[in-house]
């Protein structure tokens, strides 16, 4: 079954819509952007197998929380953190925490934005395996056990050059390269806001 191509414009649009007030992020739009990023991971095949299944699972957990009776508590990242903290849910044994679940997506976002940033700096025939390994080792790798790190780095050797990779995953590679700086700018804003909220509520260390 073929996977629908990755739409960079949609990621840009949904992350832009997710920006709430001065320092918050709407969960629904954040998840819509992530569902588009999930297509990117899928189109990359086994190279990103270590992260794609995890992304799908985490998005589904958060969508279920947004469908519950107390959905308003999960409207934004801030309301979710405050609700779970004030209700003493973060350490509750049989509770699947939205804050903990989102933290996994947040770490994945750091990796994907760093990879795409470095990808955008390459020439058309530039090798992508080295920049992918560097982006991974600088971000997500620190949260993975040695075996996953080893497997991920080995799989990345098979990546094609920049233009071949973009042709494989994007609807239009030329448009994607033009859109990339704006998309990365809003993605960085979303990432920084989320990072600041995890810092404010002291939740970076959620198990």
Q: Which secondary structure elements does this structure contain, and how are they paired or packed?
A:
Blueprint lengths: L7 H11 E2 L3 E2 L1 H17 L5 H18 L10 H10 L11 H23 L8 H10 L7 H10 L6 H8 L3 H28 L7
Antiparallel strand pairs: 1-2
Helix pairs in contact: 1-2, 1-9, 2-3, 3-5, 5-6, 5-9
Family: Belongs to the GLTP family.
Protein name: AGAP005990-PA-like protein
GO molecular function, one term: ceramide 1-phosphate binding
Task: Note down, in words, how this protein is organized.
The chain is mainly α. It has one domain (8-201): Glycolipid transfer protein, GLTP, CATH 1.10.3520. Helix content is 65%, strand content 2%. It has nine helices and two strands, in the order H-E-E-H-H-H-H-H-H-H-H. It has a two-stranded antiparallel sheet with strand order 1-2. Helix 2 packs antiparallel against helix 3 and helix 5 (98-120) packs antiparallel against helix 9 (173-200). It is globular, with a radius of gyration of 17 Å.
Provide tags for this entry.
207 residues; mainly alpha; Glycolipid transfer protein, GLTP; two-stranded antiparallel sheet; 2 strands; Glycolipid_transfer_prot_dom; ceramide 1-phosphate transfer activity; AGAP005990-PA-like protein; ceramide 1-phosphate binding
């Amino acid at each position: 079954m073929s996977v629908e191509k990755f739409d960079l414009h949609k990621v840009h649009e949904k992350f832009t819509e997710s920006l709430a007030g001065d320092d918050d992020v709407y969960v629904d739009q954040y998840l819509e952007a992530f569902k588009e990023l999930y297509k990117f991971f899928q189109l990359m095949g086994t190279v990103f197998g270590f992260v794609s299944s995890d992304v799908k699972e985490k998005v589904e957990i958060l969508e279920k929380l947004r469908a519950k009776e107390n959905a308003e508590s999960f409207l934004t990242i801030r309301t979710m953190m405050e609700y779970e903290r004030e209700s003493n849910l973060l350490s509750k044994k049989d509770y699947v925490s939205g804050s903990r679940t989102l933290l996994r997506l947040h770490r994945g976002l750091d990796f994907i934005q760093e990879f795409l940033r470095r990808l955008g700096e390459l020439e058309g025939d530039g090798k992508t395996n080295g920049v992918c390994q560097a982006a991974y080792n600088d971000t997500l790798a620190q949260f993975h056990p040695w075996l996953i790190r080893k497997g991920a780095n080995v799989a990345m050797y098979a990546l094609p050059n920049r233009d071949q990779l973009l042709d494989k995953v994007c609807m239009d590679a030329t448009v994607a390269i033009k859109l990339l700086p704006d998309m990365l700018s809003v993605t960085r804003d979303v990432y920084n806001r989320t990072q600041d909220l995890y810092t404010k509520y002291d939740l970076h260390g959620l198990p």
